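assembly run, all chains below
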Amino acid sequence: MTTTTSGPEALLSHLHSADGSATFSYAGYTIIGAVNGPIEAQRRDEIPEEAVVDVVVRPAAGVGGTRERHLEALLQSTLRQIILVTNFPRALIQITLQVTVAPENEYVNTKVVQANTNLPMLPALIQTAVLALMSAAIPLTATLTSVVIAATTEDGSNRDIINPTAREIEKSRSLHVFAFTSHGDLILTQSEGEFTMKEWEDILASAQQQCCPNTSGDVNMGDDAATGADLGTFTRSVMEAKIASDLYWK
Amino acid sequence: MATSKSMTLSSTTFAKLSPHPYLLANLQPADPSTTPTRTNGRQPSQTRTPYINTSSLSHAHGSAVVRNGDTTVICGVRGETILTSAIPNYRAPSPSDDSSSSLDEARDYDLLVPNIELATGCAPNFLPGVPPTTLAQTLSTRVYSLLHSSKLVDVSRLRIYPEEAGKENKEEDDEKMDEAEEIDEYAVAEDKAVKAYWVLYIDVLFISFDGNPFDTAWTAILAALRDTKLPFAYWDADREMVLCKPVFTAKEKQKKGSGSYWILVDPDRLEEGLCDETVTVVVDKLGRSTKILGISKHGGTVVGPELTKKMVATAESRWEQIHAAIE
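ok done. output:
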């Protein structure tokens, strides 16, 4: 039942006209991100003391709707926290995220325009945005790692699935997205469904273990829930490989 | 309905039927023992007390509301810059002909632009959708000529110089347009050419109108000009444009990492605009135990697991409140 048959993959700085770009594929999603900035902000949008962060999310099919606006708002307020916006007063940092592949649920008819929230896509969007920002050499206070977890009841016992498939999400009782900074702070929480505070705390603990394995003292118990990749280490190794290849001529 | 008793009329009816004799009857009472008063109860030489409130408009450089009885006037002054290169037939002022010359910069380059509007409904005789009435045009002309002939605004303070010259008179930083004549102390600055001017747009709006419009309008203009604070402007030679030093900066903003935070439940629009992090919790308490239907938190790292727990408790008490209100 695991979807994470292949690990995360990323391609950095492959778009030549953007200041920074990244393509990130993981858990069935492929997203192309492009960052332009700092560039001149529109006069009416500019903030005198800090940079404007503009996020544009374009879906795999059709034009963006309310769902994309919601994702953009979440990403905007989250990324604003890690970008050193006060370094670029009156400037604009534009982040464009184009979804190219999204997993489909074969059991239901897919609609092009859907109004409900699309939380499972959020971790991939965050990861792409952070990689593209680093590719554009935008100064950041931290990087982000994010995970989506579905809580299901199977045969009377609760089970948390990391990176669930569309079908698993459909059958789950609740769905949670968490994002942590590289300092281990919880920066984003989105939870839907029906759950209790106790369940939420348990899921948070496993998310923390998944996203920041170094900060939480727990040892991986080897149960099948914790099968996700360590995205923090992944981000670091991708950047290291990119820098090494860029400096190769020396 | 005239009755056989007498032909007395109430004073309001009298005033409506023949206003002029009514006013005269009040001013020249038949009974010499009573003092003559005007129909509004004032003595002939008694004025209405003016009330002045300044800086009430947030987007003007200076503003004033003047109330004189039932005549209320609001005046806003806004400064805009004009480059001397954009002025046709511009002639640079020389330091020598500052006081006595034929050159009147304010009049020649239209640096003061007054406009008077009588708002619809400020008095019964002003109708909507008509071109400016004769009264409004007359008032505009009178105000315009008095502004210039009185030399109310010191033109030397409307000049914008290149940066080095401007730096030498620091007191312009928070400049007060004063009707008092200023001693010309800009001899240093004047060997630099004037690059631009401030143009003051003086807009006067009558909110209600009950006589004596010119006096009230002029009072409002005086008060608004006194209140006017222009940012310090200078000509930037590199960029070839006029730049202003900011009057207000948002430096008061608390810097990150100070560690203190406040949690505001049910924020209003102002608070929402100023806070970064928001948490929304949806709870259902109808069953035996509280069910959480959604938690959404974004925009910051202050709220961790512990605070989220507190938020859920807050949401629960809010549920009780809403439940009681609905039931």
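The first helix of chain A runs from residue 66 to 82.

The interface with chain B takes residues 48-49, 74, 77-78, 80-81, 181, 183, 185-197, 200-201, 204 of chain A (CB under 8 Å).

not gonna interpret more than that til we talk
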